[in-house]
Design a protein that fits this description.
By secondary structure, the protein is α+β, with helices and mostly antiparallel strands. The chain has 19 helices and six strands.
Length: about 425
């Protein structure tokens, strides 16, 4: 194990990744302000739907979130430059974790991946070359790193792609139903729409997506297929960047390719003046305990988390239970409608509750199709009617991929008394 995990290799892949990573998260942070994402998601809403148990985690008042994201952007620049790297990466990780956990309305799998990679980068010597920390002599320059660092990124990206592929094996993906719906919403150009709605094209996209997710890592691992895999990766991610508009994720995903190439090749491409290292005999045991007792267990958790929905009753595609943190990326189109009824148990009077009054349009649309949002919103209704003897009943129907509308929430369940089950199936989510 020592000869595999702890052998010294050129640290150029990690250094270049740090530079790309810092640049991308800086673009993500400043871009969120420029495009209005921060305003729509964090400033305009009266409150956000945070992860359950973290309801206290809410956006800063006024325009505080603009300053919050500016600080994250500056941390990204500091990471890119390797300036006080440890402070910058820890600061960014904490702030991004805050954004991630304080709102689910704009949930995206690459936000989760960004959090994981930021967390990894805290423990890695990513500023030991081509950094201001080295230039200003805060740390010593190093040209090498242990091999397990590259392996860490390879295993993590394998987990992401593997589970993304497995999740696609369901009827509406295999017959092209979802990819047709997805592509039809990406453009209004008549020429492109004609192509996208062609059965052969959207079926090609469906199966190309599965094959890409399943094969990209094995193809990158082997020298003979690596260049083909990189070209396929470029095509796949650029298509997604242009038509699906998913922020930095396509470029972020491409940056992982650095760890599949021989380190010397990355050195020659990006650091032509950097000293080449001979095949090293010494082994690098720095951070060995962190790797063995912290990062390996964390990777194991990453492996089992996407499996948890198999232990929960019902189809995750319908119930949403076990959907998050599972790399179930862009799998279905979900629509729903919801009505809240408030019953005064002292008088028997039943009234409709206008849930739009304190939600943004996006929050209102999301509420109708997410059981955890519904439960959380009912807790707010209970607070609003504090001191009154009420019951809350819900009429909620959903469909998947424009299919038949079916009842999602048990209309007989009193949500003034409903409990949230963190780990298992909530009985008031109806199964079909």
């Amino acid at each position: 194990m020592n000869q595999l995990f702890f052998k010294n290799i050129d640290n150029s892949p990690l250094i270049v990744f740090r530079i790309f990573f810092g640049f991308l998260i800086s673009c993500e942070s400043f871009g969120a302000i420029i495009t209005g994402w921060v305003k729509r998601v964090l400033i305009e809403p009266k409150f956000t739907f945070s992860f359950i148990g973290l309801e206290w985690l809410q956006p800063l008042p006024g325009y505080g979130m603009y300053f919050y994201f500016i600080i994250m952007g500056l941390f990204g620049i500091a990471i890119m430059l390797g300036y006080r790297y440890r402070v910058a990466i820890i600061g960014y990780t904490i702030l991004w974790a805050g954004v991630y956990f304080m709102q689910k309305t704009s949930y995206n799998n690459h936000y989760y991946l960004l959090l994981i990679i930021s967390f990894y980068m805290i423990f890695l010597p990513a500023n030991q070359y081509a950094s201001l920390d080295v230039k200003q002599q805060r740390i010593h320059k190093q040209n090498t790193m242990p091999y397990w660092i590259s392996l860490l990124f390879i295993v993590q990206v394998t987990i992401v792609y593997f589970y993304a592929a497995i999740a696609k094996f369901y009827p509406d993906w295999l017959d092209g139903t979802f990819t047709k719906l997805l592509l039809s919403g990406t453009t209004s150009n008549e020429f492109l729409l004609k192509i996208f709605l062609n059965k052969y094209f959207y079926l090609f996209i469906a199966y190309a997506g599965i094959l890409f997710d399943l094969l990209i890592v094995p193809l990158l691992l082997f020298k003979k297929t690596r260049t083909i895999a990189l070209a396929a990766s470029l095509s796949f991610h650029l298509f997604n960047a242009i038509f699906l508009q998913i922020g930095i994720f396509p470029f972020f995903a491409l940056s992982f390719s650095l760890f599949f190439y021989p380190p010397e090749k990355i050195r020659k491409l990006f650091f032509k003046n950097k000293l080449s290292i001979e095949e090293p005999i010494a082994y690098n045991y720095s951070r060995k305990r962190i790797f063995l007792y912290f990062l390996i267990p964390f990777l194991f958790i990453q492996f089992i988390l996407p499996l948890r929905h198999h232990l929960i009753e019902g189809d995750v595609l319908w119930t949403e239970e076990g959907h998050r943190l599972s790399w179930r990326m862009m799998l279905r189109k979900r629509d729903g409608f919801i009505n809240f009824k408030i019953k005064n148990n002292d008088t028997g009077e039943i009234t409709s509750y206008d849930y739009h009054k304190n939600l943004s349009p996006k929050q209102a649309n999301t509420l109708a199709s997410k059981p955890d949002f519904i439960w959380q919103y009912c807790q707010r209704i209970k607070q609003e009617y504090s001191g009154k003897n009420i019951s809350i009943f819900i009429d909620c129907k959903n469909n998947i991929n424009n299919g038949e509308f079916k009842t999602l929430i048990d209309p007989k369940q009193d949500f003034a008394k409903a409990k949230w089950n963190y780990f298992w199936h909530n009985e008031w989510v109806l199964l079909h």
